[in-house]
Structures
1.
Amino acid sequence: MKTIGLIGGMSWESTVEYYQIINEEVKNRLGGLHSAKCLLYSVDFAEIEQYQFEGDWDKAGELLGDVAISLENAGADFIVICTNTMHKVIGHMEEKISIPILHIADATANQIKKSNISTIGLLGTKYTMEQDFYKSRLESSGIHVLVPNQPERELVNKVIYEELCVGEIKQVSREYYKAVMERLVECGAEGIILGCTEIGLLVKQEDATVPLFDTTVIHALEAVNKSLESK
């Protein structure tokens, strides 16, 4: 079993989900008292969020790059960044380490293609929805990406940072997300990516009329796949 290096805390609410899913899946596959070999480095999200707000992605990348070095030195065989948005700085991180980073968008694209879906709706932070670092990764796999309109993106983002990241789950926000997802479906989306690792805490498959792709679950299961692969 390979050792998974988890970079969490962005937010810790969803990092808990990663840890639980990974360990439950290892137990399901191997049985008995098996659990995952993993190392967790949980950062202070307030520091990361400030860099996001200021647009200082270089400093954010330097910080997470140092975290990745710590995990590699501690014995991790590969890295899992437990968030979608901070994959924007994956290049900074890869320059500092010799072990691979398991990209969340690649894992998600693979699941979408298995479902024979060509047009997908994307929910996430405003950075993930508006910038190319994530969407281009999906589009390079032949997937057409739709995002909510600008006012919707603002409120989707606000719910993530002001509610979900601090553990607040509100029915009014769930209803709003459901309406946004339905508008994406009306625009041609055949499925919806929950492209922020906290969104799965708010909406579930029963809240949508099309398949949902929960990136937390997809990424965590792919980490188990890599940890247990024979080569």
2.
Amino acid sequence: MFETSFTRSDLLILLDGAWMTLQLTFWAVLIGTTGGLVLGWVRNTLPRASIPLGWVLDLFRTIPLLIQFVLANSLNSILGLNWPIMVIGCITLGLYCAAYCTDIVRSGLDAVAPNLRRAARSLGMSYWQELRFISAPLALRVAFPSWLNMTLAAMKDTALVMWLGLAELLRSSQHIINRIQEPLLVLCIVGLIYYVMSWVIAWCGAQLERRWNTP
């Protein structure tokens, strides 16, 4: 007969960790999307002049995220900033997301046919009007699936924040595993929680895409 020391209190601890994971994901994606919109527009508008910017973004994309967390935490101590771990985690993961979101936005804008832009300008639209009413809506539809994948990846990458000591979902599970010594059961529950959160985000994204495609 199956017996376990896992209790309702343990489940509540995991749910608290899941809530922390969602908060990290929200702020990181918000920072990454905001930065990506601006930097992606710069990369699309000034491709040659922004080459050095591309090199900087490549650093954030290629250096493992765990190393970035460790460096950011060390820099926080060296400079005496004394920022909370939550802030360090959000900013570091946000910059990581911004590096990817920049290319997502740039590729979305690149996908807009130049003829459409020229046609809009010939109708008397200014550059900003054309960007707002023509290019941006079309680029959004192209870039949205990639942005959604970035969001899901960011949610899973929040697990690395456990090395900074923040009690997100995976770190919360480690405390429970150390106490009840049932890693298989606890990790299965954690995996299920991650799956449910990912499914909800993906479902909301699919509903939004369906609304866009409805005539």
